[in-house]
Amino acid sequence: MASTVGTGGKEAPLTLEEPAPRVLSFWDQSAFWANLGVSLFAFSGAYTVLAPNSEGAAQISIAAGIVAMIVGTVVGGLMLGLAAIPGARTGKPAMMLLRGLFGAKPSYVPTVLNIAQLIGWGTFELIVIGNAAEELFGGGPRWLYIVAAGVLTTVLTIWPLGSVRILRRFVTIGVAIALIWFYVQFFRAGLPDLTANPGPQGSGPFGSDWNLFWIATDAALAVSISWVPVAADYTRYAKSTKGAFGAASGAYALTQILAYVLGLFALALATGEGTYGPFLTVTLGAVFFLILVVREADQSFANVYSTAVSIQNLAPRADRRVLSIGLGAFITLLALWLDMDDYFGFLGLIGSVFVPLLGVLVADFFLRARGEWNTDADAPSRWGMIAAWLVGLSVYQVINPGDAGVWTDFWVRVQDWLHFTKQPWTSASLLSFLAAGAVAWALGAIAERRRARS
Questions:
Q1: Reduced to 3 states, what is the DSSP secondary structure of residue 303?
Q2: Can you tell me whether residue 23 is helix, strand or coil?
Q3: Which of 21, 159, 173, 245 would you label with 400, given CA atoms 20 to 30 Å apart?
Q4: What does the pLDDT look like over 291-309, one tens digit per residue?
Q5: Full-model pTM
């Protein structure tokens, strides 16, 4: 096993059959999650909060968008923190933990979904890096930027614990300086009226904006939720459970808020000079933006590493290094071939799958099983927990069918059949989380009573 400076000579295990070394401190984890919270996606994707229905024009004001983004990120950060605890307590990766929640074989279903979404995210991150580098350097070989990002991603993934320590020691400081620099420059440039609605409603932050407020909140929350199904992959190396929860919930939420607000400010200052124009036109903007572009590789690194670990739930003896190299090459090829312009529907689907799954996990792990789970390869199927998950997923889709083609059309028909009309206060994320958790708790109680009688 490769030796890694700063981790006591220990690296991540090569297979699921090896124990996870507990070597990451609170500050190691905080640096890791803080860097994941700062993404170029927050700058280029901030518009999805202002136009949560994907109808093109902004539909809520920037001020209302900031409030929705803060609410969604704080709630998402708390959910991320809850997802981090089981990994820290058990030392097991995320998809392996689902053996205890759903059973060994049923856990393959969310595992495959997780692999699919992680490959999608990893590919998307390389595309974002390529586009940002092309804009930063005023053109050039986009394919070379993507290949370089793919190679860097793969190298980081082969030594994941060492990479986390590198983020803490070197990268985090540069990112913090870059964020502060851009905030100062944007405020010096002067911001427009953030309470004005740039879209057709023209109602200000607290008028009809609230009709779409919770949809916008769900759009922001979906970004945090995208990390929920992989949180345990990293917190399994944590020295303490409290440190894992605090780092995942606090550090991530703080930096995502800073990044999204900065993205919304950039959107307000944009004059059509490209996606990242406001960052590149300020004093020394290109220098500090370069730091953020290079750092973006930690996003693709996390996606590729978790994809490899998720695959190991299906093939426990597979060597993660071999998987990482193959996955790094695969997402690089996909990034060279694909152009992922519309990702709002993708985010909606992620939220609808993993928000209710987290609700089931929280109800069963913390309230019923209290951490005593069977994660063996022959763990029995638990159909009640699967049913609770499907209930939560259905609640999410009925409230917010999203924008995903045929899938959305089906749930719109279900809305019509139920005569359901979405209200301004209905949040798909929060209600599906609560519904899945409540059903899981109730079915768990029934199962306990049956076992007590038998």
A1: helix
A2: coil
A3: 245
A4: 999 999 999 999 999 999 9
A5: 0.88
The mean predicted confidence, pLDDT, of the chain is: 86
Q: Contact at 8 Å (CB) between 406 and 439?
A: no
The count of residues in the chain is 454
Residue 238 pairs in a beta bridge with 24
- Give the separation between CA 86 and CA 64, rounded to whole angstroms: 35
Nearest Cα neighbor of 418 from 439, 436, 394 is: 394
Q: How far apart are CA 126 and CA 150, in angstroms?
A: 7
**Are 439 and 388 contacting, i.e. CB atoms less than 8 angstroms apart?**
yes
Q: How many angstroms separate the CA atoms of 325 and 428, rounded?
A: 37
- Lookup result for tokens 């279903």: 109
Residues 6 or more apart in contact with residue 339 via CB below 8 angstroms: 127
pLDDT score for 247: 95
Joined together, the tokens standing for residue 31 give 């640096």
Q: Output the CA torsion sign for 31, 34, 39, 41.
A: positive
Cα 10 to Cα 2: distance, rounded to the nearest angstrom:
7
**Do the beta carbons of residue 151 and residue 2 sit within 8 Å?**
no
225 within 8 A of 351, measured Cβ to Cβ? yes
pLDDT of residue 264: 84
Position 387 confidence tier, pLDDT thresholds 50, 70, 90: very high
For residue 225, which of 351, 353, 390 has the smallest C-alpha distance?
A: 351
Other beta carbons less than 10 A from residue 142's beta carbon = 16
Residue 143 CB partners (closer than 8 Å, separation 6+): 130, 336
Query: CA 92, CA 84: separation in Å to the nearest integer?
Result: 11
Q: In one letter, which amino acid is 450?
A: R
For 448, other C-beta atoms within 10 Å of its C-beta total 11
Determine whether 139 is exposed, middle or buried from the number of CB atoms within 10 Å of its CB (0-12, 13-18, 19+).
exposed
Helix (H, G, I), strand (E, B) or coil at 61: coil
Please give the average per-residue pLDDT across 187-198, as a whole number.
72
Long-range CB contact pairs, 404-407, < 8 A, 24+? 404/345, 404/346, 404/348, 404/349, 405/345, 407/349
Distance CA 373, CA 389 (A): 18
